[in-house]
Amino acid sequence: MVLRQLLRVPALLRAAVRVQLRRNVGLSAVAFNRAKELDPVQKLFLDKIREYNTKSKQAGGPVDVGPEFQKDMNESLARLQRMYGEGDLTKFPEFKFEEPNFEETPK
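Structure tokens predicted for ATP synthase-coupling factor 6, mitochondrial (107 residues):
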């Protein structure tokens, strides 16, 4: 009986150590990822996105597009206006909801 209990202690110890190691490795991996610099490819990707964002704001629209893009866009907008009616299709529509009348009407 005592021998069986002594043999169980290492199994319990191994399980406890395994849980602690798993937690520590998980936490250290998160801390390591935050502490290290970005991968060079990730850094290049983010730099290009930021560069495109600034160019897009300066140009007021898509960057490095030719007259063919503008022609295709105008044709698409004209086709959509024919299909769906008038209005500016480059802006998000404005919705106006009226408040319902909850007053009782006389019978």
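The radius of gyration is 32 Å.
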